[in-house]
Amino acid sequence: RKNLVVVGASLAGLRAVEAARKAGFQGTITLVGAEEHLPYDRPPLSKAYLDELPPGEVPEATVFRPESVLRDELGADLLLGSPATGLDPVAKEVRIGDRRLRYDALVIATGATARSLPGSEHLAGVHTLRTLDDAVAVRNALDAGARTVVVGAGFIGSEIASGARKRGLDVTVVEALPAPLVRAVGEVMGSACAGLHHRNGTDLRCGLGVERIEGVDQVERVVLSDGSAVEADLVVVGIGATPATEWLEGSGLRLDNGVVCDDNLFTGVEGVYAAGDVARWHNPLFDRSMRLEHWTSAADQGAVAARNALYPASAKPYQTVPYFWSDWYDSRIQFVGVPSTDEVRIVEGDPDRDRRVVALYREGGRLAGALTINGQNVIMKYRGLIMKPTSWDDALLFAEQRRATAA
Ligand code: FAD
């Protein structure tokens, strides 16, 4: 295969390019990106990037590689600010407006787009946070001392609340479900994480929806489903993301909340693979279809998809125990595995009292997930146990031994 085209110039796309060269691929590589920016790292955008800086200091985005490395060392042709608009799998061409780009191997890494609240998009103080441009807008509002309302107590919303509170600003978080992070970690540990908001002075209001947002004289009035209203200068909508697949509609690829792939990240269409937040693939380790929006899997999938796309005869499946982290106030939340609801057991710490908490998730007779708050030294051990796999009883025994050693 002579031509590799990678659509989506972010984490998964960049890792695809790097892995192709590392595997010895000598053909042409074109990296196509909708944004004007060089590939940059997103997690800092809702964390360090929002921190207050001493006067005169300018916030900087974390660009993964300078342009010279991308062009000269990796030998990639960069087409930035050029959203792909279509795919013709018969002619093996990616369309970018009128332009057509031929590929022998294609990696789709177009990620996801933040969901907005319908009807509020035109309001000056209402933002989502997915891109660097979004982060600049949110940062500027925080610099101006914005009273902040965050809609959605997921990771990104909660991190923005943390950032605003660190600056001493008034923050309200509105969450429709009974606790933060319910979809990602379940209700028991979501409620444990809610304590972090309460203890840090964020006004967390769960079980409430947003009816509408009214913009009056530069102030946004967020009207909630119980009839109450909160005034804000900045509203950040953090209600999830949608896989960026519109450009693939009608291409013949199977789209179902993401680009559907097999174990090898192969779409079933000759030469076409997908990676990162946009990919829904079959994870053999859990024998189920998954679409993750996590940094680690996006990076790993980018590399696997490129190798498999270029060397299909030696294609390897991508299997993983999902992992993500999130930083709230001065705490780090980490989660591995899947948030099974069969049983959740807190094996270390009391969420109301202790900084460090460890909880395990049971699915049938085995360990399926683990969550830690400030448990950096143990979380990867649980990831290893889930990978093995490990029975629930053995996992509890392991937790007991850890507790005894720590004590
Ligand atoms: P993306 O990073 O979404 O990149 C896709 C790229 O494709 C974008 O640049 C987009 O502009 C481009 N694109 C879209 N459509 C087209 C098109 N038609 N043509 C060309 N280009 C296109 N994960 C964690 O595990 N821990 C964290 O703490 C964490 N924090 C995060 C904080 C924020 C604010 C955000 C937004 C995400 C965070 N994540 C975190 C998730 C992590 O950043 C993502 O999983 C990762 O960025 C996914 O990489 P990706 O390359 O698949 O997609």
UniProtKB/TrEMBL annotation:
The highest taxon in the source lineage is Bacteria
Start and end of every Reductase C-terminal domain?
Answer: 323-398
The cofactors it requires, by name, are: FAD
A Pfam family recorded for this sequence: Pyr_redox_2
Q: Which UniProt keywords apply?
A: FAD, Flavoprotein, Oxidoreductase
Please give one Gene Ontology molecular function term for this protein.
oxidoreductase activity, acting on NAD(P)H
Domain FAD/NAD(P)-binding spans what residues? Answer: 3-302
Q: Which GO terms describe its cellular component?
A: cytoplasm
The cross-references to PANTHER family, in alphabetical order and at most eight, read: APOPTOSIS-INDUCING FACTOR 1, RIESKE DOMAIN-CONTAINING PROTEIN-RELATED
The protein's name in its UniProt record: FAD-dependent oxidoreductase
Name the source organism: Saccharopolyspora terrae
